Amino acid sequence: MNATVNADPAELEKFSELAHRWWDADGEFRPLHQINPLRLAWIAGIAPLAGREVLDVGCGGGILAEAMARSAERVTGIDLAGKPLKVAQLHALEAGVANVTYREISAEALAEERPAGFDVVTCMEMLEHVPDPASVVAACARLVRPGGWVFFSTLNRNPKSFAFAIVGAEYLLKLLPRGTHDWAKFIRPGELAAACRAAGLDLRHTRGMQYNPLTRRYWLDADTSVNYLFATQRPAA
Ligand code: SAH
Question: Which of 79, 91, 175 should be mutated for ligand 1, with most atoms under 8 A from CB?
Fold first, then answer.
């Protein structure tokens, strides 16, 4: 890989190794399967997807991309881990979802190729795996058309998120494999907001995501102390 690419090879390797497990709803990616209806409904409630050209940045095995393709005009999923993309493509084929395409390309490179090319851009659970998240945010801002929406989700960085997302999720509840997340790379909402502002994106909505290990349910509310989502908009031209 080109040394100037904004990616951590160890991170990409981690996701490639688990690629064959991506669509096992009870496997390592169970949390992504479980939160998918929730985030999809939130996104589509803000930016209805019918007739829209959608980009999913850091799409992995395509859990969100494929779901969005069921209502959008077309979805492009990009990632820099090759194996998850192959799994995503195969799954779409088997599911008969023909309007989703997957490509191994960085957000920054695609922004050169297709500036303002998308109505809606999503970048979920990805920024906390990247060396320079602000560069990805800036690329997303360039990829969306004026007036279009960009959605992010990531993990907050504070003592509670260490307790919940690392100790709780990886060690106690074993919701995620150990080493999935590096707490030091988590991003405070204020930091993500600053990156959005610098990229020219207006922050419109913020939500927190919670999990109850007893009921095994997820929901959205105002508490952004651990998982959170941003809906941002590029100002209309
Ligand atoms: N967005 C998907 C997958 C989240 S897992 C979902 O929410 O369902 C994180 C993904 O980010 C993995 O697929 C990993 O390969 C990808 N990723 C990590 N670093 C990346 C980078 N620099 N560029 C693109 N994708 C990256």
Answer: 79
Note down the domain range covering 64. Answer: 9-233
Total tally of structural domains belonging to the chain? 1
What whole-number distance in Å separates Cα of residue 82 and Cα of residue 60? 9
Q: Which residue from 126, 154, 175 has its CB within 8 A of the most atoms of ligand 1, so it is best to mutate?
A: 126
How far away, in angstroms, is 79 Cα from ligand 1 center? 6
Using an 8 Å Cβ cutoff, are 65 and 77 in contact? yes
Phi, psi of 84 (to 5 degrees): -60, -35
Measured between alpha carbons, how far is residue 201 from residues 80, 99, 121, 167, 231 in Å? Answer: 24, 27, 12, 33, 10
Query: Using one digit for the tens of pLDDT, what is the confidence trace for 190-229?
Result: 999 999 999 999 999 999 999 998 999 999 999 999 999 9
